[in-house]
Amino acid sequence: MISLAQEKGLTNNDTIKCSQELDQLIFQYQSSFRKNRRQRGELKRKRNVKYMLLLPKLSVTS
């Protein structure tokens, strides 16, 4: 795809078609990879996230 884009340009129909095909292949690979990890129990759900609230330091004078 890179050589095609360099030769014909980024907006050329052939380059765009190649880019879309590559996007689809990457999506299929990622979906398959996640599915396999999920089946093996390696993919964990999002953990509970704890947040810390930072407040500005107040000066107290007596």
UniProtKB/TrEMBL annotation:
SUPFAM superfamilies linked to this entry: BAS1536-like
Origin: domain of life: Bacteria
One of the GO BP terms on file: regulation of sporulation
Pfam families: SpoOE-like
GO molecular function, one term: protein dimerization activity
Protein name (database record): Aspartyl-phosphate phosphatase Spo0E family protein
Gene3D superfamilies with a match to the protein in the record: Helix-loop-helix DNA-binding domain
